[in-house]
Specification:
The complex is a heterodimer. By secondary structure, chain A is an alpha+beta fold. Chain A is built from 13 helices and 10 strands. In chain A, strands 2-3-8-5-7-6 form a 6-stranded mixed β-barrel. In chain A, strand 2 and strand 3 form a beta hairpin. Chain B has one domain: P-loop containing nucleotide triphosphate hydrolases (Rossmann fold, 3-Layer(aba) Sandwich). In chain B, the strands form 2 sheets. In chain B, strands 6-7-8-3-9-10 form a 6-stranded mixed beta sheet, sandwiched between helices. A 4-stranded antiparallel beta sheet of chain B has the order 2-1-4-5, covered by helices on one side. Chain B is globular, with a radius of gyration of 17 Å. The model of chain B has no long low-confidence stretch (mean pLDDT about 90). Classes of the chains: A alpha+beta, B alpha/beta. At the A-B interface, helix 1, helix 10, helix 11 and helix 13 of A face helix 2 and helix 3 of B.
């Protein structure tokens, strides 16, 4: 079979000058590798977002402070938003029809110290509804209670890994830890749960009453002088009631915050769908952008191949002349050089793909203080990578191959 | 086998027309062994290229084995070069990175043969190099390399062997060996055309065609 012959000829040509072939392929390897890693990170991000919302369930509304003067998404940025929500707001929302639970929460990173041990965790200042909303099981002790909230008790519930880091196999219940130089008593430990789809680990989270958080850990006040709340999660009785509850919350808060009819809200009420949509747009844009960057390096790789093929054609002018003299047609020469380019490209692409896969595995293993990202190299990505490699090989090789095919055998034989 | 009627070839070099061949008439029968001799500029290379289907005449007819091939397309010419003609060059023109056997197989790739190994081996046997089939050209002497080239020229069972200064790079011992191989091939019925500028070589054949300034000035036995 002629085609198989040409394939052999191509391989032999490439093996004849291994260093040159390897250097030429480098562009393709990096290009393909970069595109795949970047796109798989993007895909991983998207998956993470989607499963976040699956994990939470759907009948939830998120109420957050926002800056009415800020454009779009920036309105929700912490620090940029005016602190406008309070505990009383949350209390008032409990009376709205079809509302099952209201859970105000503040959060931050914190360092916990026990004796010589210390650990970093995410601290949630919240209410007892938090446990039901996110479906926690206790491994030992108890969760925070209404009484803790009312008394501003200095108590804390530990995630399983934080408990292990600080106490080893000892029982933490009743012992004292230090957070921001203040003494807290451990009243419970949560059962292990693993990674949340938010990107951090449930097991490296600690819980304290929101009133304690505001009074003793991280104070933040509203313009009106009350303690600020970062977010309020509202559980609605049914999907059908979502719109009605959203409207009711808005009406209630506008009245409580004394917002005139022509002024914008100083808060935002978002259902999961909207949040999901926003995140999806962002991650999609990010993926496309990253993909574009990778595509540019692919372009560079393909220019490298075209360059080397042109040099190769010139170097082998006499050989081409000979092949034509003994009967090679234009098409035969064209196919031979196209195969060489395509092989260079395909092998480079395959190496890049393998490297990218390895790197994706590596990225998935990195533990950034409880944050993990699963980079996914799907079969679709693999197939696209292969097709793109072959296509690039052919596209880069076509011009050099045509030049080779058009050589006049008489002139070519006497070249050099 | 080879009939050239009033062959003229004119090259256009910029604005000037350069006639390389002017009205050449030549007839070579099947089974002949002839030499074409001339100095540089005599047109012998041009004549050789036309005979060998590497080039087409500007004016005139080329009739090969009874068929007019003067106006054939490039692909058809390539086929003729592959199957009816065997080339031997002064510098052997072998692929330096391939074995002798692979070199001999080359024309068979383009003719799509399924018996490459067998036919190539037979061709190498014909020139007495069957034992060196796996060697690369760098491992062979000049004479051996030319023999590989001849085997390559033979492998598709051509009607004509066209050799361009085949002994130009060889010492006298190798030269004799090559010439005797040509004679032996001729005795087997292959038409052999030797193109050279050396009289010593030309005199080894029974018919010498002398070219001067694009025309045949003598055609017959050595003087």
């Amino acid at each position: 079979m002629k085609l198989i012959e040409f394939f052999h000829i191509a391989i032999r040509s490439l093996l004849a000058n291994k260093l040159r072939s390897a250097l030429t392929m480098l562009g393709m390897i990096i290009g393909v590798g970069a595109v795949i890693v970047l796109m798989s990170v993007g895909a991983g991000l998207q998956n993470m977002i989607t499963s976040t919302f699956e994990e939470l369930g759907s009948n939830l509304l998120f109420v957050q402070p926002s800056n009415p003067e800020a454009p779009g998404f920036a309105a929700l940025a912490p620090g940029y938003a005016t602190a406008s929500l309070t505990m009383d707001d949350a209390e008032a929302m409990r009376d709205i029809r079809s509302v099952l639970a209201v859970n105000p929460t503040n959060e931050n990173f914190i360092k916990i110290i026990f004796g010589n041990e210390s650990a970093t965790a995410v601290i949630e200042g919240t209410t007892p509804e938090f446990r039901e909303l996110y479906d926690f099981t206790m491994a030992s002790g108890q969760f925070i209670s209404e009484v803790n909230i009312a008394r501003r008790d200095m108590v804390v519930v530990l995630g399983s890994k934080t408990a292990e880091d600080l106490f080893g196999s000892d029982d933490p219940i009743g012992k004292h830890v230090k957070m921001r130089d203040k003494r807290f008593t451990v009243i419970g430990v949560m059962a292990p749960r693993g990674m949340s789809s938010f990107g951090f680990s449930w097991d490296e989270m600690v819980i304290t009453p929101i009133t304690t958080y505001q009074a003793r850990l991280f104070a933040q006040k509203t313009p009106g002088g009350q303690d600020a709340v970062q977010s309020i999660v509202v559980q609605v009785a049914s999907a059908e009631a979502m719109d009605e509850v959203t409207e009711d919350i808005k009406t209630l808060l506008r009245k409580r915050h004394h917002i005139d009819e022509d002024e914008d809200d100083d808060f935002a009420v978002t259902g999961l769908e909207q949040l999901l949509g926003t995140f999806e747009t962002i991650t999609l844009a990010l993926t496309v952008f990253l993909g574009l960057i990778g595509a540019i390096s692919l372009l560079v790789g393909s220019i490298g191949i075209m360059n080397i093929m042109l040099v190769s054609v010139t170097e082998r002018t006499r050989e081409i002349g000979l092949r034509k003299a003994i009967g090679a047609k234009r098409r035969d020469i064209l196919i031979q050089f196209l195969f060489e380019a395509a092989t260079l490209s395909l092998v480079g692409g395959a190496i890049g793909l393998t490297g990218a896969w390895l790197m994706a595995q590596g990225i998935s293993l990195i533990d950034l203080g409880g944050f993990q990202l699963k980079a996914v190299v799907s079969p679709l990505i693999v197939m696209v990578a292969v097709l793109v490699s072959v296509f690039i090989g052919l596209a880069s090789g076509i011009y050099p191959a045509m030049r080779a095919a058009r050589l006049n055998p008489i002139d070519a034989l006497h070249y050099g | 086998m080879i009939e050239l009627e009033n062959i003229t070839k004119v090259y256009r070099m910029g604005k000037v027309d350069v006639p390389a061949l002017r009205g050449v008439n030549l007839s070579i029968n099947q089974g002949e062994i002839v030499a074409i001799i001339g100095a540089s500029g005599s047109g012998k290379s041009t004549l050789m290229n036309i005979i060998g289907f590497l080039d087409k005449p500007t004016v005139g007819r080329y009739i090969f084995d009874g068929a007019d091939v003067s106006r054939l397309g490039d692909n058809k010419l390539a086929e003729m070069r592959n199957k009816r003609m065997g080339f031997v060059f002064q510098d052997y023109s072998l692929l330096s990175r391939a074995s002798a056997l692979a070199n001999v197989e080359l024309p068979l790739i383009y003719s799509g043969s399924l018996q490459k190994h067998k036919r190539a081996t037979e061709a190498l046997e014909r020139v007495g190099l069957a034992g060196r089939a796996k060697h690369k050209p760098t491992e062979l002497s000049g004479g051996e390399q030319q023999r590989v080239a001849i085997a390559r020229a033979l492998v598709n069972n051509p009607d004509v062997i066209l050799a361009d200064e085949p002994t130009g790079n060889l010492d006298s011992a190798a030269t004799e060996q090559i010439i005797s191989i040509f004679r032996s091939l001729n005795q087997d019925g292959i038409t052999v055309v030797l193109v050279t500028h050396e009289m010593d070589i030309a005199e080894q054949t029974p018919r010498i065609i002398r070219l001067y300034d694009g025309k045949i000035v003598s055609d017959g036995k050595a003087a």
